[in-house]
Write a structure and sequence with these properties.
Helicase, Ruva Protein, domain 3; mainly alpha; elongated; 124 residues
């Protein structure tokens, strides 16, 4: 078996003169290069089944999740994410996420949810 060459000093030469702070900044810049494309894909690519899955993990039943996702689709909010819609409505009304989701399941709060995201778009 061939022994691996110890080339650590050669590979780190371009980093040798950096301070701890500069190394930290470089690390986070490289981490962003890796993560940013994944985040972008997640923001632009979703489906009703993914959104139902998110809602299930938030504690909603499959029937509740289906109704919320249907409402999100009907109100053209799918690109915002169903969980985000429920969360933002809950924050705005100062109620629990569960209460906000049940409201939406019962057909209430959709106009408010749409307006919350309309404000977001116009304020950018």
């Amino acid at each position: 078996m061939k022994k691996r060459l110890d080339d650590f000093k050669d590979r780190r030469a371009h980093l040798a003169n950096l301070s701890d702070e500069e190394l930290k900044v470089r690390f986070w810049a490289l981490a962003s290069e890796i993560v940013d494309p994944m985040l972008e894909l997640g923001k632009k690519n979703t489906s009703p089944s993914i959104e139902r899955s998110v809602l299930l993990r938030m504690g909603f039943s499959s029937l509740e999740a289906k109704e919320i996702v249907n409402g999100v689709l009907e109100n053209n909010l799918i690109n915002k994410g169903a969980g985000h819609v429920v969360y933002k409505l809950a924050q705005n009304k100062q109620i629990s996420i569960r209460e906000a989701g049940v409201m939406l399941v019962n057909g209430k709060g959709w106009d408010e949810a749409v307006n919350l995201f309309a404000k977001e778009v116009t304020s950018c």
